[in-house]
TrEMBL record, chain A:
Domain of life: Archaea
Membrane topology: Multi-pass membrane protein
Name of the molecule in the record: Branched-chain amino acid ABC transporter permease
Pfam families: BPD_transp_2 (PF02653)
Keyword Phosphoprotein: no
Compartment(s) where it occurs, according to its Swiss-Prot or TrEMBL record: Cell membrane
Automatic annotation (TrEMBL), chain B:
Protein name stated in the entry: ABC transporter ATP-binding protein
PANTHER family: AMINO ACID ABC TRANSPORTER ATP-BINDING PROTEIN (PTHR45772:SF7), CONSERVED COMPONENT OF ABC TRANSPORTER FOR NATURAL AMINO ACIDS-RELATED (PTHR45772)
Matches recorded under InterPro entries: AAA+_ATPase, ABC_AA/LPS_Transport, ABC_transporter-like_ATP-bd, BCA_ABC_TP_C, P-loop_NTPase
Gene Ontology biological process terms, A to Z: D-alanine transmembrane transport; L-alanine transport; L-isoleucine import across plasma membrane; L-valine import across plasma membrane
Cross-referenced CDD domains: ABC_Mj1267_LivG_branched
Domain ABC transporter: start-end pairs: 4-236
GO CC annotations, alphabetized: plasma membrane
High-level lineage: Archaea, Methanobacteriati, Methanobacteriota, Stenosarchaea group, Halobacteria
Record-annotated membrane-spanning stretches: none
UniProt entry tagged with the keyword Heme: no
Organism the protein comes from: Halarchaeum rubridurum
Amino acid sequence: MNTDRFMLGVPSSKRTVAASLVVLAAMLVVPFVTTSYYTGLAMTALVFLMLGVSWNLLAGYAGQISLGHAAFFGLGAYVAAWLTTPSAAGLPAIPFPLSHPVVALVLGGVGAALVALVTGPVMFRLRGHYFAIGTLALAAIIRLILTDQRSISGGSTGYYLNAGMGEIPTYLLTVVVAALATIGVYLVVNSRLGLGMRAIHDDETAASGLGVDPLRYKMYAFLISAFVAGLAGAAYALNSLYINPTSTLAVTWTVDTLVIVILGGMGTVAGPLFGTVIFMIIDNGLASVLGGLATTVEGIIIILVVIFLPNGIYGYLKSYVAQRREGDTATSS
Amino acid sequence: MSLLNCNGVTKRFGGVVALDDVSFEVERGETVGLIGPNGAGKSTLFKVITGSHAPTEGSVHYDGTDITGWSPHDICHEGLVKTHQIVRPFENLSIHQNVEVGAEFGGRRPENVEERAYEALEFVGLDERAHETPTELSVGALKRLEIARVLATDPGILLFDEVAGGLDPEETEEIVSLIGDIKDRGKTVFLIDHVMRALMNVSERVFVLNNGEFIAKGTPAEIQNDEQVIEAYLGTSAERDEGPTRGEA
């Protein structure tokens, strides 16, 4: 009885752990064995992975569809920019530990989580589609404020970071942070917190009647999700060294994140991982083969996945493997 | 002091009066049945008691505490739980996890969650299917899962909203015997059911609700012979001679 308390939908075998370690090791050696172009692609993939993990926790596990993740991403990016390069925003010099890129990255996540903490109780007065629209509006407001406040955001000219960590250290830091974020979310969904979130996802009324406080568990999901999205934004800013409110807080970040999680499989830990890989291949591979038609084909692929593999690629693989196993035991017994 | 006490509860939805000045008490350890025609306000009363609806007027006390207007999860922590008329399993959780939600979040001190969830499953006879998902269960088994989930919260009083509704006679029999077992554990039970024979057998007292008002309270025997009840609920005596023992479902 003790073995699989929270196991449903969660990979747990030694094989999975081994595969994860191989992927992690491969990611760590990318900058040393490939060109800067591929390191850049891997960097983008890591940023999307964190966004996917973040959105998946809130939407896939707690059932709250956010269309405002670009705001948390952008806030993380700006907090990292302000801390590492305060002079560009006319801020006084930030003392050493806070201005260090690693600290700035973590605080980027904290900044996004703080905004989630303040706005969450208001947002969660909305339910379902209305919550989604509310978060979309929230993101639009945050983007407008930053666009308007040229002195702190750089306005349409943008904001140049002077983080000075170098490409490879920034990349390695991002690998570590993305791995920790993925593991962290994995632990959350397999804990008491995760059980509460998943109960709300399936039936909020029933969960509440069994003692789950819906607002509390939605807030936990929102805070952790915003934190990870903020980390992704900060990592992006520290790597690209240039951000601006129009593109860094653009809704395309949210849309790409949704596509990644939906392609991979919502409500599964491995879903965002699979989704990121597929998305990167489609997004970059198609562009080099098809040129201008790439986005159209990408859209068609997404529509086909949603229609024929509603549980995503990973969801499909999982049920396929489960069916085969069932078949095996049926024939062997 | 009674365990559950409703005093002058009125619930209006716009201009519709679903409950009109309803007052009653349920004693500790008692099993009380609630009957009445469709639309009488039975489910509304249960929802008011467990916090899904706030009453327009009146108060609900549980074990001396005023719980009027509390949220469902706070009321659950206090010891009142309800099963749903239409089953509401968590479809993406295993059967065991479904019950764990109750064990983990339903009580004030979540201890031995796994074991308690497993015990509740054993109690309703679903322990061997603990690792399947609820989508594989029959309606009868889903009803038993509903019971296991609320039992796992270690409640003081259980409200069953048509827990035997829509079941075949064999499944109904299982549910009735489960309710008997729950009574034997010293739990207080308050139940709505359309299966009259079952309800009359397990209940010590029966309340009859019609158009949002109580028209009778008494022992099952008294209720079965109450002219007003017969007219409102069981039909006139001429109809009753041909009619089945089940109420109009």
